[in-house]
Amino acid sequence: MFWRRAWWRMLCGLGFLGALCAFQRPFREFTGVEYGIGDIPLPPDYREKTEWAFARLMYPPGPLNGYRGRDWDWHEGNSLWTQDFPRADRHFSLAVRRLTRIHVRSAEQVVNLDEGDAYDWPWLYAVQVGEWGLTDAQGKALREYCLRGGFFMADDFHGNTEWNEFSSRIHKAFPEYQITELPDDHPIFHTVYDLENRIQVVGWSHLREGSKNAWDGGKGAHWRGISDPSGRIMVAISYNSDIGDAWEWADNPRYPAAMADQAMRLGVNYIVYAMTH
To answer: Is the terminal CB of the chain with fewer CB neighbours within 10 Å at N or C?
Structure first.
């Protein structure tokens, strides 16, 4: 009788795990604003279940959307959230694999807050958040994700106009929390690498000018964050820098090595912080 009950429990357990796997959102490729499906080779481990994968947030475009008129359906890619995608994601994932002992998948995972699948990923990234159109419902979902232990990295927005657009929407998600400038001695900058002399990371298209939207306050890098009640950084904000572009072009000798190096180290620090705090 004991063995019969044990066998039944094992079958039920296997059935439960099978159901969980069946309902996990499968990997899917999307067309980006710079790259089409197949332009960047799909790594062989793209279906592997790992400790960490580059989780990229998809979101609707906002009023400052620079791709207005060509991104007909943001759910299908070829939209603002796909800037540098998937080249940046896969380059950085390879770097995380080389530079840490974290079990990393080499392919990205796209996350839609409306579908409730963010909780499978400890670290979530969004690009060009000064032009996003994060909805109130998505803001609430992002808030819940972060307060339950998730980590959100907001990247690639420049100048006062884009800052105001970003901060007005992130404030809806975290109305009672302040955005603060993170000091050089904050632990997040010393988890793996010591990043005390942080420089402005400039996107490929703006290397000659040295910044983007300098006329509107885009000159000078700022590393900001939102902390939870215990002091843990749950939102890391790279304002006036384009970390994703540095990941994308890190293997190009024409891209400044100092910027690529800092972007890789900053990202690694953020990931290790996210997974240990």
So the answer is: N
- CA-based angle 47:251:189, to the nearest 5? 80
Sequence spans of domains, the chain: 24-276
Q: Could you tell me which residues come within 8 angstroms of residue 118 by beta carbon, excluding any fewer than 6 positions away?
A: 55, 111, 124, 141, 142, 145, 150
pLDDT tens digits for range 174-219? 999 999 999 999 999 999 999 988 899 999 999 999 999 999 999 9
CA distances from 67 to 4, 71, 110, 128, 201 (A): 62, 6, 19, 11, 23
DSSP 44-61: TTTT---SB--EEEE--B
- The conformation of residue 188, written as its DSSP 8-state character, comes to G
Superfamily of domain covering 24-276: Domain of unknown function DUF4159 (3.40.50.12140)
The H-or-E segment that residue 239 falls in is strand 233-239
Q: β-pairing, 180-181 with 109-112?
A: unpaired
Q: Can you tell me whether residue 6 is helix, strand or coil?
A: helix
List C-alpha distances in Å: 82 to 87, 213, 226, 259, 277: 10, 21, 24, 21, 28
Sign, Cα dihedral of 22, 97, 184, 202:
negative
* Kind of pairing between the strands at 233-239 and 222-227: antiparallel
Q: Strands 55-58, 109-112: parallel, antiparallel or unpaired by DSSP?
A: parallel
Burial 22-32 (b: 16+ CB within 10 A, else e): eeeeeeebbbb
Tell me the pTM: 0.90
